[in-house]
Amino acid sequence: MRILGGWIALTPEVDAKLLFGRHVWDCAQHADLWGKRLPELRAAAQVSEPGGPAVVAAFDLIETAERPEQTVERVTAIYRVVKPHLATVYERHLAVANPVYEPPTRRILLRCIEEERRHAAAGALVLERLFARDRASADRARLWERKLLDALGAARGVTGDVELPLVAEPATPPERASVAQDLVTPPSGFDVEAALGDLAAPLAAHRAALARGELAAVRGELSGEAPPEAVVEYARLVPPFERVEVVGVARIGRQRVVKLALAGPRGRQVLQERWTPTEAGWRIVTVEVTDSTS
Amino acid sequence: MDRPIAYDKLAREDRFVRMRTRDVANAKIEQGMPPFPDLSSEASMRDRIHGILVGEMQAMEGAGRSVYDFPDAPWEFTLDMARQVWDESRHVETYLGLLDHLGGYVGEFPETTLLWRCACAEDAAARVAGVNRGLEGLACDVFNQLIHIARKMGDPVIERSVDYVLADEITHVRMGSRWLNELTRGDAERRRRAIEFQDSIDERFNLGGQRQDGHHEVVPISIAKDARRLAGFTDEEIERLVKSTQRSQVY
Fold it and tell me: Do residue A22 and residue B68 have CB atoms under 8 angstroms apart?
């Protein structure tokens, strides 16, 4: 729950972000149910401790995947390792929980099993979407899953006494309709030409100049009202660029703020320029260069 | 993970264009537009809905950070923040739908990060005072007005959707009222600093001077007194807010 909560802000993809957001509350309710059950079993309410130092180490390893480009690692960790592992541990506990003496525990287990399995299935679908955007990421996911399972294996699972295998497939997969409630369709793409309007043609020439590294021509498109820092910003670009792609177009009244991703042999840069219509045509009023979009 | 994280670590897809609040406001003023969308046109309505969408996203991210950043806070505090994460995730979905309903797209307007910056406050009490009571209280005013305008426009989709979201926001403000009191019990200095932080937000983010005391038909954005009372604001606090709107900055 805490890791998912912390990761939401660090995750760029809207569908993965919302998946985490959906599940934080379910995880909190699971923890709350267990925390309330504790005093009924003669332990302190809402007080927990890790199964051992190796469990702490495994979760510390999970937390290291915090860079924006590591969403695949984050989803893999929680939805291919942690949640399936928890469901497996719960199912084994349920199998030995006495139906006469332990119905309160059994009820919590049943709810947690159902929801953890559903979460894992939803996570698998989001992971498929991520793989579709970046085919190489599937290999990264497999390696990361193996590494985390090894770390969890060294800890003998979350409780420190789990027998192998740490993850067992569900006897019955969750129903598609129940999984769908956890998923949000990613926002559709936007029509770049329509968003640009009559800025499309001058921007095409601007992009070509950028790709060729003709920064003098690019600077010539600055408005007279542009601050001197704009020239300094252009000096931070490292051309030439193989691709100059429009990735964002925002409007402020008649003005457009255009975000360009510039990919070249020396890496990726992002250029954000605010354009304003003038009698002499479209001119740039502000410029911002970053080496990363996130 | 750091506790808390630096505010510039907020992650977004490429399609989002991020700008400073002041720069967006100035660009609008230069073009003779009000700094905050006045809902006088379709584009202005989409601008408002888009602004709320990214605000909800940042609220979800901020509440998520509160779940992570304060492991020593009372468990019920964490539980409330986790509930808020879920609510905000549904609000994001709601506003994605409303943006689509109005023919807009995600990224159509710049994103400013004022809510997120407030959500990076290091003290939990300041965070709930600033975000839950200050900014979500402001959301109550804005949503109340949006419901009113949607009703006048005859758009039941917006009216009903925002009404459900408003109900949640009142709950979040109430959570903020509860935790401001509980986290600062016996620590007058901590309470003073948290309230000061909230007051600074109320004063600075006054929606270009549009938020005022009065009826919907008379003022651009009416302070939602009933919603605020439901959320645990005292009459004295509401009066202080009314006074602050009379001396606010323009963005």
Answer: no
